[in-house]
Write a structure and sequence with these properties.
Length: about 220
């Protein structure tokens, strides 16, 4: 049965992107180089929050889950994000160390997909990232209550209180909150989608080969 929402959805049009030029034949051999180029182009074209990505994980029963997080860093084909190991996503990343990421830059009709295995950062890297957090984010990391129900707590602003006071939760000399960490998704496969206003969409997939190089292939859109 069609609902009002069905009708509303049917009226929504596909946004016509200002598709930038993309020639898969001259794409870089390294997908992270192409990712950086596209990310910089997204920012240069005022795509809001271009470094926000959907992070998909699975739990031990194989049930999928997804949410958005910030991309903290990229190095050596690992895409890094920050999350508590006690949050649902942290437990999933820890117990089933595989993940997928999706970036969507609609103004340009672009999507980048990343799939790979997951590892957590060493203490030095986590500590350096923790130091860069705002006082509010550090407080939340120290409280370590993300994704818990709020119903039996006072409203969040009261619960968090004054960050400068709550930061005293931090043990003197502690480099980071005990459960907060960076997680890296080691890309094994990356795919670049370029929409085209005329419908000639392009998909370029990179897959890691056995000697650490990359194979590419074009896919039907
Ligand atoms: C724009 C945006 C950025 C976010 N970035 C992060 C992030 O970097 N790390 C994080 O733990 N949660 C981030 N969140 C919150 C997550 O989407 C999610 O609600 C939260 O982490 C709980 O997820 P979980 O219950 O699956 O663990 C962000 C949310 C938004 C809307």
């Amino acid at each position: 049965m069609r609902s009002e929402l069905s009708g509303f959805l049917a009226e929504l049009s596909w946004p016509r992107p200002q598709a930038p030029a993309f020639d898969p034949g001259s794409a870089p051999a390294d997908p992270v180089v192409l990712f950086e180029l596209w990310l910089r182009e997204a920012v240069a074209h005022d795509v809001p929050a271009a470094h926000v990505m959907t992070l998909a994980t699975v739990d031990v029963a194989g049930r999928p889950d997804a949410r958005v997080t910030l991309l903290e860093d990229v190095d050596d084909h690992a895409f890094w994000l920050a999350a508590s190991e006690t949050s649902p996503k942290g437990k999933q990343l820890g117990r089933v160390p595989v993940a997928a990421l999706v970036f969507h830059w609609p103004q340009q009709g672009r999507q980048v997909r990343v799939r790979g295995t997951v590892r957590s950062a060493d203490e030095a890297r986590t500590a350096a990232a923790f130091e860069r957090l705002s006082a509010h984010a550090r407080t939340e990391a120290l409280e370590d209550r993300q994704s818990r129900p709020l119903h039996d707590e006072v409203w969040l602003s009261d619960a968090l209180g004054d960050p400068s006071e709550l930061l005293q939760l931090e043990e003197p000399g502690a480099a980071s909150a005990p459960t907060w960490r960076l997680w890296g998704v080691d890309a094994g496969r990356m795919e670049f989608f370029q929409a085209d206003p005329e419908g000639h969409h392009l998909r370029l997939r990179y897959s890691r080969d056995e000697v650490g190089g990359w194979e590419t292939e074009l896919l039907r859109p």
